[in-house]
Write a structure and sequence with these properties.
The protein has 258 residues and is α/β, with parallel strands linked by helices. It is 15% helix and 34% strand.
């Protein structure tokens, strides 16, 4: 088991992306520990009367040269709303890095698919794969243009495709309805995905049909992050597994019902 850290991270930037999303840039009190794409952190929420447990947040990106990491967060409830108000110069207590990681593909031409804030763990994956020489295409989807986040950042590592339900950006429809899934256009050897479960299950079905690998990052509720509370258990072909310790990344073929 790799070493975990509890750090008070210095807030370098709190960037508002929209009324629903914000991006934190954080710096550890010392050098950045080793972090792999797909891992997450448990964040303490201060000054929130009804938020007793830490919140699991995917690690969005890591920059070792600048000694910082980024968290892309959606405002959903009291905890994340309170977190969105943190100011530059304050500190955020984190336990990290937690969970397992995405695996490297065996072949080139991989497709990363994210819906809404589900793109959160995929930017660091795109960076990692690109730096290792793989050709990366990122497909992001949302209800409207306001839900398409960090598209310019993904452009640094390869082609970016977009779908929106209202056609305000990219192709109209769900990400799984994008034209690249037409047989003659589909050239990818593996799919990596994070987002709403119905979307990921649909991508698992596409992967099964095309007989290619697919890894999914589950967004189950994770209260402790270390496998103690068992609230994030998922049913697999090898029995129950904790999403926080044996996930959050799974090969879709491991998951029952997928």
């Amino acid at each position: 088991m790799k070493k975990k850290f509890i750090h008070d991270m210095l807030v370098l930037e709190n960037k508002v992306l929209s009324n629903k999303y914000f991006l934190l840039t954080l710096q550890p009190p010392q050098g950045m520990p080793e972090i792999a794409a797909g891992q997450f952190t448990q964040v303490e929420i201060k000054n929130s009367k009804n938020t007793f447990l830490r919140r699991p947040i995917s690690i969005h990106d890591v920059d070792y040269d600048k000694n910082n990491l980024k968290l892309l967060i959606q405002v959903i409830g009291e905890g994340t709303k309170n977190l969105s108000q943190i100011k530059v110069g304050e500190t955020l207590n984190m336990i990290y890095p937690l969970g397992n990681t995405f695996s490297l593909p065996e072949k080139d031409n991989v497709l990363l698919v994210g819906g809404g804030c589900g793109i959160a763990p995929l930017l660091y994956l795109a960076r990692t794969l690109s730096e290792k020489g793989f050709k990366v295409t990122s497909l992001v989807g949302g209800a409207s243009q306001c839900d398409i986040l960090e598209a310019n950042e993904y452009h640094k590592y390869g082609e970016v495709l977009v779908t929106t339900m209202d056609a305000s950006m990219g192709e109209k429809g769900l990400v799984t309805q994008h034209s690249i899934f037409n047989t003659e256009k589909f050239i990818y050897s593996k799919i990596y995905t994070c987002g709403p479960e119905p979307m990921m299950k649909a991508l698992a079905g596409i992967s099964r049909e095309k007989d290619i690998d697919c890894e999914v990052s589950l967004e189950n509720m994770m209260a402790c992050g270390v496998g103690a509370c068992l609230c994030c258990v998922v049913d697999t072909i090898d029995g129950n597994k904790c999403t926080c310790t044996e996930g959050p990344v799974f090969d879709y073929r491991e998951l029952k019902g997928w």
